[in-house]
């Protein structure tokens, strides 16, 4: 091939142009592009959708994103789902998968930590210190189901620390949504006055809509979200490169933070 | 990300939905025609059992159905292990698995109209055909099938439309993998979860219009078929 | 004898024990009250039902016995149902061609045009079944059955679902069947007038068994059978149109034992006809009446005298030229005239019905 080109070269007038064209083509052609099957928790789906093109630009590999609930993914992975990487909404499921030998040992790490926020879509409802909770200026509070959702468990912890949990429970002032999205919907539609939601749901680039209170981190167990490489994968190197990028790349970290998560300890 | 009205992923999801719905409808017609015929014509006591079993997917929550199918078709279940023994991949998380799930999920929508239509044919027409030298298979194709045309139309279109809207089964069994098992209905859900209501509405409106057009087709065709059958 | 059957069927609601043979030509009527099993018997012949015990043989072929059952689509039988049962998804022509197409060309003995012409269907071929009247539908059904070139034609009360005008429309076609086809026909009916009009042979079904079977002229007049005791009881005579009398607008039919005058008909001389004489229209006289308005007088000899339903009446069977004639007269007349078997007398027929 090369000596064919060598023989043609003298015949072609705009040699420089041709060489430049070929060089450009070779440079632009990506290194062999792989597709990575990523299972991501619903709450991080939007953020991952923003991260995917950045990763593709940096690395050339494409992310096939499947969104769902962590519980659903856990069942599916046990039944042989063809995912390469799991970005869970909690730490329990990745730990369980690890214990069952379904993950690549040592690949688990916390890729984001969620922040709990008490929120109302309307301005001037929730004060910056959260006094509204004690003053009782609300009919109902929305939370996610504490048994299923880490944000729900965190909300319960906060309310318990404030000594309000039992009373709210008795007075039936708690609207419990199946997941964090439902809790958010309760507040967004006005069915409840305030709700404990994820900061990532109500902030964009650091700006929080409506009115809100951020409970101190000390009041609840950190809502760590763990990522893990699944043992089934045939693209281990690519998976590792993706998780490394997620963990360390400044652009990635900035995007995750902007979406309302903490990164790193 | 958006190329025109729909994003490329949405187009792929629509294509998967259409492929799934049409494959399911065709396969169900093939499978359910003899089954519905038997249910319509038999006088055996097994008929009640058969009718209950084919109506079961109607009352099962789709996620339950999806869950059981996942266990069955996954590598640990009978279905999956059979596939492995035959040297093939288990059906879970593949388009083939979705077809199996959709067939089960939409089964009653094909069996019931077909069975009703076959019962409407009546024994008399078949007896007449027998006295006119038609063998049992001949009678089936030249008398029963034309007279039961309404059932075929209704059944196939219902299977198609019902499968288009399927969610729980496909999600559990398919794993929501773009380009492989992500159907339009799941894509809509994803958009809602990601607060991209505009995209969700575009896709939803498309599905809605498609289903509505199909239903118009059913009722239109039924009306014509009914006009012919009205004068025995 | 071409069709022989012996069928036993025992159900809680229904008993059938019929042994019977049918001749290999002409119309054989299967007659009895509703519910007695006539249709079931016919369906067994066709193979649409299977009696648990018994046999059906046709022209030496075993169609059914305890171990063997030939399914209906293999039996060379044409069947006309009570309600025409035309295929709704085909037009008249489609219906007619349905059976024809399933008979190999070599075995077809009736052509499409022949059947259409026989039943007068020329103008109806393109009509959909919903556009046909009841009588028209039955005619199509009969032609459709004929087009399978059957060796045996079965008709299950083909007229009972029709109104009188439709029946009148079809009967002539049935008579033509009788005249123009050489295949045997079994005709189920509970109407004696239909049977009298077209049947040659009759099997009387009573309580699930065949009480009697034989030529129609015999069975109609046999005093031991219920037929002779019906309200409409009478005799059948086969005759030939002998002459026409233009002056008095009469036609004469030559029958065994004499001539009968009827109102003039357009039928040609020599045409074979059937006449029916009701028993109540026959009076008896020891001497031929001379100054009487009755012109139809046939000489004969008394065969027997039997009781009728009404104790005041008696049935007298008279042999007229070898054929039986039934007369219903009062007991008093029998006594006064001394009517007894062997006596020669004259039968005076007040009214003759030409079966047309």
Topology, please?
The complex is a heterotrimer of chains A (265), B (232) and C (356).
Chain A: H1 2-8, H2 15-28, E1 35-41, H3 42-59, E2 62-68, H4 70-78, E3 85-87, H5 92-99, E4 109-114, E5 116-120, H6 132-135, E6 141-144, H7 150-161, H8 165-170, E7 174-177, H9 180-188, E8 194-198, H10 199-202, E9 203-204, E10 207-208, E11 211-213, E12 223-229, H11 236-248, H12 250-258
Parallel strand pairs in A: 1-2, 1-3, 6-7, 6-8
Antiparallel strand pairs in A: 3-12, 4-12, 5-8, 5-11, 9-10
Helix pairs in contact in A: 3-12
Chain B: H1 8-41, H2 46-59, H3 62-73, H4 78-85, H5 95-131, H6 136-147, H7 149-164, H8 168-174, H9 184-193, H10 197-229
Chain C: E1 3-11, E2 14-22, E3 27-31, H1 38-46, E4 53-58, E5 61-64, E6 77-80, H2 92-100, H3 112-119, H4 134-146, E7 152-156, H5 164-180, E8 185-189, H6 192-198, E9 201-206, E10 209-215, H7 216-221, E11 234-245, E12 250-255, E13 258-263, E14 272-278, E15 282-285, E16 296-307, E17 313-320, E18 323-330, H8 331-337, E19 344-349, E20 353-354
Offer a concise description of the structure.
The complex is a heterotrimer of chains A (265), B (232) and C (356). With 265 residues, chain A is an alpha/beta fold.
What does this molecule look like?
The complex is a heterotrimer of chains A (265), B (232) and C (356). Chain A is of the alpha/beta class. Chain A is 43% helix and 21% strand. Chain A contains 12 helices and 12 strands. In chain A, strands 2-1-3-12-4 form a 5-stranded mixed β-sheet. In chain A, α3 (42-59) runs antiparallel to α12. Chain A is elongated and about 85 Å long. Chain A starts with a helix and ends in a 7-residue tail after the last helix. The mean pLDDT of chain A is 85. By secondary structure, chain B is an all-alpha fold. Chain B has one domain (8-229): MetI-like fold, CATH 1.10.3720. Chain B has helices at 8-41, 46-59, 62-73, 78-85, 95-131, 136-147, 149-164, 168-174, 184-193, 197-229. Chain B is globular. Chain C is of the alpha+beta class. Chain C folds into 2 domains: 3-221, P-loop containing nucleotide triphosphate hydrolases (Rossmann fold), CATH 3.40.50; 234-354, OB fold (Dihydrolipoamide Acetyltransferase, E2P) (Beta Barrel), CATH 2.40.50. In chain C, 21% of the residues lie in helices and 37% in strands. In chain C, a hairpin with a 2-residue loop joins β12 (250-255) and β13 (258-263). The model of chain C has no long low-confidence stretch (mean pLDDT 90). Classes of the chains: A alpha/beta (265), B mainly alpha (232), C alpha+beta (356). At the B-C interface, α5 and α6 of B face β6 of C.
